Amino acid sequence: MAKTKLKVSGLPQVKRLEEFDFSWPKGGLTENKFQELSSLLFLPRKEDVILTGPSGIGKTHLMIALTYKTCMTGYSAYYLSCIDLTEVLVRGAVRASTINRLKSKLQWMKKPHVLVIDEVGYENLNYEQATLFFQLINVRYEHGLIIIMTNKPFPNGEK
Fold first, then answer.
1. Is 12 contained in some domain?
2. Is residue 59 assigned to a domain?
3. In the chain, how many domains are there?
4. Among 83, 80, 25, CA closest to 54
5. pLDDT score for 128
6. Do 38 and 17 meet the contact criterion of CB atoms below 8 Å apart?
7. Does a structural domain hold residue 67?
8. What span, in angstroms and rounded, lies between the C-alpha atoms of 127 and 118?
9. Which domain range does residue 110 map to?
10. What does each C-alpha distance from 66 to 42, 89, 124 come to in angstroms?
């Protein structure tokens, strides 16, 4: 069953938490925080995870390894890049007037325990893509968690 969940997840490759290399700085990821994430306690609490930082610090490895462990422990997960996700939603929106495809796709994206969205912010979203992305976040709210990976820093409120 776990192997089926892994196959359906769409992960581009397999990485394991045990392979994560702490021998060089990881941009603020402490070993305690790593252990907390590795425990997967965020899953039953439905707490979203956002991995942020510059390229080359291990975000992708961590994201894939967490998703792998999620599948191997019996949870369902689905992985997409942000651009692929918005393309799927835009295609659904274009067809929505005839067969209500967008609503069906949003409902389907609500089903996995974990939705993994890679490369958020790598390319700017246009208004339609951003609106559809918000609709997806709204549909998943309180139904399942999201793991987001981005190299864009969040504003800290300073000017």
1. no
2. yes
3. 1
4. 25
5. 87
6. yes
7. yes
8. 19
9. 50-151
10. 11, 25, 26
Q: pLDDT exceeding 90 applies to what percent of the chain?
A: 29
Distance of alpha carbon 92 from alpha carbon 90, whole angstroms: 5
Average pLDDT, the chain: 84
Share in percent of the chain as helix, strand, coil (round to 5): 50, 15, 40
The answer to whether 117 and 64 are in contact (CB under 8 A) is no
- The CATH number assigned to the domain holding 64 equals 3.40.50.300
Greater pLDDT, 93 or 49? 49
Task: Please tell me the least confidently modeled range out of 33-37, 53-57, 74-78, 135-139.
Answer: 53-57
What CA–CA distances, in Å, run from 65 to 113, 114, 123, 139? 16, 13, 24, 25
State the pLDDT confidence band at 80, using cuts at 50, 70 and 90.
Answer: very high
**The pLDDT of residue 159:** 45
Token couple for 66: 């967490």
Q: What is this structure's pTM?
A: 0.84
End-to-end CA distance of the chain: 50
Angle between helices 82-99 and 101-110 (to 10 degrees): 130
Question: Is 4 within the bounds of a domain?
Answer: no
Report whether 53 contacts 59 (CB < 8 A): yes
